[in-house]
Amino acid sequence: MSAEAAILPGRGGLFGGLSDTFWRRPKLFVFLLLLPAALWLGIVYLGSLFALLLQSFFHIDDFSGLVVHEFTLKTYAELFKPQNFDIIVRTASMAAMVTIASAIVAVPIAYVAARYAKRRWKALFYLAVMLPLWSSYLVKVYAWKLVLAKEGIITWVFEQLHISPALDAILAIPVIGGNSLSFSFIGTFLVFLYIWLPYMILPIQAAVERVPVNLIDASADLGAHPLATFRHVIFPLALPGIVAGSIFTFSLTLGDYIIPQIVGNGRLFIGQVVYTQQGTAGNIPLAAAFTVVPIVIMGLYLWGARRMGAFDAL
Amino acid sequence: MRSDKVDGGPRASLGLKFAAAGGLAFLLVPLLIIFVYAFTTEEKSFQWPPPGLTTKWFAVAWARADIWSALTLSVQVAAISTALALILGTLCAAAVSGSKFFGREVVSLLVILPIALPGIITGISLRSAFSLLDIPFSFWTIVLGHATFCIVVVYNNAVARFRRTSGSLVEASMDLGADGFQTFRHVILPNIGTALLAGGMLAFALSFDEVIVTTFTAGQQQTLPLWMLEELIRPRQRPVTNVVAMFVVLVTFLPILAAYYLTRDGDNVAGMGK
Amino acid sequence: MTAAVSLQKVSRHFGLVKAMDEVDLEIVPGEFFAMLGPSGSGKTTCLRLIAGFDQPSSGHIEIFGETAEGVPPYRRNVNTVFQDYALFPHLNVIQNVAFSLMLKKVAKAERLKQAAAALETVKLGGYGERRPGQLSGGQRQRVALARAIVNRPKVLLLDEPLGALDLKLRESMQEELKALQKSLGITFIFVTHDQGEALSMADRVAVFNDGKVQQIGTPEEIYKRPQSRFVADFVGSSNVLAPDFVQSILGVRRWASLRPEAIHVMAAGTSASRMTGTIVTRSYLGAVVRLLIDLNGTSLHASVPSSEAVPGEGEKVTLGFAKDAIHLMENEK
Description:
Chain A is mainly alpha-helical.
């Protein structure tokens, strides 16, 4: 009945031959699949990072203003000058505050979205997170410029409620206050919080969704108070999500230079220094050395996050 | 049994609901405000509430050549970067999910790195590489930067789908007489197609919107975000900026909705890839 | 006559793990051959090598006399029914079944006709337009079967095809598969960890353990004359008798096996036999009652027809069996 041969002849042609070869040598096939992306990221991205790192070991000649292509740690030493070190501390503390605040704001949203929202509400939550996430970054900053402006909506709301003095009092606080919200640290903080918040919500939601519902039910059946359930069951399981989210909020805040430029009191952040040093000031080595700071901080952060299993929640 | 389980699903406590609702309002209200400002008659300040409403700024914006050229450049850059990212990201995802090999974790880390590190690092790295190698800024230097961080979006979407697609499907296809290329065409592509479409759209949106890396890799050219940045720092005609901002919000809304419908049964839209 | 499938000293190593270690097999054309063993015994690896999903580390494989090494699965006239069925979710049932015909560029009308006929064979006529996701497990399994036979392969491989089905369905599918194999005349190679399934369906059985074939034979041979303690133990819960025990009865120091049903259980004192023991547990299994008996420290299983008067737990009993019921094993492993 089966008159055909048990082994069919090769199909010939380029495709037939290639297909047979890939089957015989699966490792070669995987290698070829990986090659384009690995080459791209390896050459374009890592190559550039390396070029940057290299630059940070050069320095600017004080008299001629030209880059001296010699190995030196002089540029790194400059980072520890008070005016530069201030910038690093300011940026890192802002990143830390934004991260903590966004975790606090994100947990209820992510938790409700993951646990309680059904159908329509689920879609609404999804859009409410995705829309700000994918909306143009500049448009979001711009929206906050509008909201925080002296003649803008927040001032108006305070006036309508007849509590303008409260706003003035907040703005009068030294360091974090300012002329108006859009020229204060509070403003910078709010915009950072707004813009990076979705990056915190999504991984937490993913992590909470991964907690089997019956685990929570089991805890409830054991008589745990909802709050205790949250603390002893949900929170530990959502923690990798929070850590994963914090990678984004922390890293993105560290490197941003546009938000403090548009909404802020003029005190510099790392990103702004990098931008001006490489641009107008022409001091690429110092800019490069400044860039190494977030890389080192993020390197440590990622290393720690990895050990907590945060990458599973990405 | 607790009363909140009677209707089959648990209910959130009131406090939790308020917190979540407040959070949602915080996320959405600022975007809605832009829509109002696009119609304001006020030209000089960000006055709220608007003293009057008008649609004349739409016509003004429509007639501006600089906006059109910025928009065209953004679309071109996004299209080419997305195409590159689709090829590189899909191949890489296929390799990583299809086999276990030494260094697999290194590869996935390498893919995530361009978004895990701040954009400014990618930007200045590329700029310093261009300056070391004497590469002049051009359309292609912008694409080079954009494709680098778009790969991860496609990769994340594709990996999620590959994981859901049973590995034995490929074996079944080969068993039934399909060689590698036929298997790709008849089995793999139909199964990952929607994930690639979603990933591609998100990559497009990402590139269309990118400003931080672009400031370092663009010379004299202006993408739409660079145009907006210029307007934010040195405002020329605020109402026109309002109109463009509203347009951009509307444009990004569509791919998100589409991506949602394409991937909703099962994997998350890998929005994390931003 | 050329063997349908012939494996000669075939090994497959994954790093240090020897999934298959120098396996020799000859499968006769047209037979229903079962590969039986616990998980990790190498039976599935063996199947994958025959299908071409994997390649041997060393050794030689022939399919109907032709060398199979280096030949990808799509050039082997061998089809597989997968454990998870592996139906294409983007295609409907008839498209799934017609997949291989489409690749062969059979005209559309003709391939739909053949696919429909194959669906009839597995009693799924009229289900062609459904999606795999809309079918029950048993129906999916039939679609997978139809898809694999529509091409009339020289060899059909089945990887635990009944594993995911419930007991009742499994029993009826066993009979159907056997009937199907008879009517098609195709060589079936069937992987299973269920000894009952292997014994009831196969013409011949190969028992795998630790990457090696322990024994090949007809179900009766395997069941009655296990060559090793592993086979005796794995195929049908035989009593494995230690050399000391065997010496006390037969006078030879050898491992041996004794089927539970070969043991006669009598109330204590009613027989001249010197073997008296105590019933430890008593399990009612319908047609038979299964007893675990402690015989001076040796545990023996016996199964007694439930129609007989069966003593209860804790009672003293005398055991008897024919000396030739004790099967000495060649392999002392």
